[in-house]
Specification:
Blueprint: E1 4-8, H1 15-28, E2 33-36, H2 53-63, E3 68-74, H3 81-94, E4 99-103, H4 122-139, E5 144-148, E6 153-158, E7 171-174, H5 178-187, E8 190-193, H6 205-225, E9 234-238, H7 252-263, E10 269-273, H8 285-298
Parallel strand pairs: 1-2, 1-10, 2-3, 3-4, 4-7, 7-8, 8-9, 9-10
Antiparallel strand pairs: 5-6
Helix pairs in contact: 1-2, 2-3, 3-4, 4-5, 5-6
């Protein structure tokens, strides 16, 4: 299978001052998909402009025709399944069935406390995530849902006419732990990883590859336990968080080498960040665009 190449466009620019042009250019460059982060703010961008994921994707859907669109990733930190489902069904309709929901358990960043709550423990995040994904699956596939859980509820929530994509838009589940991998195996059409975060500061690219190999095996084991063939799930690597950092975007050859090594692990989609000057995602725009246009044909 050919390796698909996608990008993630952070929502830090006003739509009419560079925001729109990035999304339209991404489609011109031939990216399989363009995603955005679904955060209220994020790390070093906290004190600067940052726009909402759903309105951004709605605008992107209106100015593109072919490229898939989605979040990497949405989490329960500030989302509620009933309202999120309505927005996703609307997005799927506006885009003509091009939306993928990247979804994860969330972390302890700014989103975790923005609504005034105390940060959840890892176990609380995992508990909420499991309930969140299961309820969202129902809301996107059933016309009416009533549910009372430990964390979420729905009372005769209507979602007619449902998604354009049937039975619902695809879930790309971000997970590395056993509970998250079980959710990916049960509900996911794709699995997302950023690698092993413990290796980011002091690990080597070789150690990262070994860690990713172990993650893919754990996914396969979770799929086997769920009665699914792991090969039916797309395997997505969101780059920029492994020890390689920005080096794969330094040249076309460097990227092809990086992507090829991860393709051998079974990854079907590589996601690279749209260059942002002066940030951790800084890269030469011309090199980035050359990679977008030429790398896929070298990764068949």
């Amino acid at each position: 299978m050919s390796l698909r190449l996608s990008t993630v466009i952070l929502p830090y620019r006003r739509w009419h001052a560079g925001g729109r042009s990035a999304w339209t250019r991404a489609e011109q460059l031939g990216f399989h998909a363009a995603y955005t982060y679904d955060h209220l703010s994020w790390r070093s961008f906290r004190d600067g402009p940052w726009f909402g994921a759903v309105p951004t994707l709605t605008a992107a859907a209106a100015v593109t025709d072919r490229m898939r669109l989605g979040t990497l990733v949405t989490s329960p930190n500030f989302r509620q399944p009933v309202t999120l489902a309505k927005e996703l069904i609307s997005l799927d309709d506006i885009s003509g069935g091009r939306i993928t929901l990247g979804i994860g358990a969330g972390g302890t960043g700014f989103d975790a406390t923005a609504l005034g709550q105390e940060p959840w423990t890892p176990r609380e995040r995992a508990d909420r995530f499991a309930e969140f994904v299961a309820l969202l699956d129902r809301l996107l596939t059933e016309d009416a849902v009533s549910y009372e859980g430990d964390f979420y509820s729905a009372h005769e929530a209507r979602n007619i006419p449902g998604c354009v994509q049937r039975p619902r838009l695809p879930f790309a589940v971000a997970a590395t732990g056993p509970r998250g991998l079980r959710l990916a195996a049960r509900y996911g059409q794709a699995w997302v990883t950023t690698g092993d975060p413990k290796l980011y500061e002091s690990g080597t690219p070789e150690q990262s590859v070994q860690a990713l190999r172990a993650q893919t095996q754990k996914l396969a084991d979770a799929c086997a336990a769920a009665g699914r063939d792991a090969s039916v799930l797309d395997k997505v690597l969101l780059t920029g968080f492994t020890p390689d950092r920005g080096r794969p975007l330094e040249s076309l050859d460097a990227f092809v080498d990086f992507a090829g090594r991860h393709q051998e692990l079974g990854f079907t989609e590589i996601v690279i960040h749209w260059p942002i000057p002066g940030s951790d995602f800084a890269a030469d725009q011309k090199v980035f665009e050359r990679i977008a246009m030429e790398a896929p044909s070298q990764l068949t």
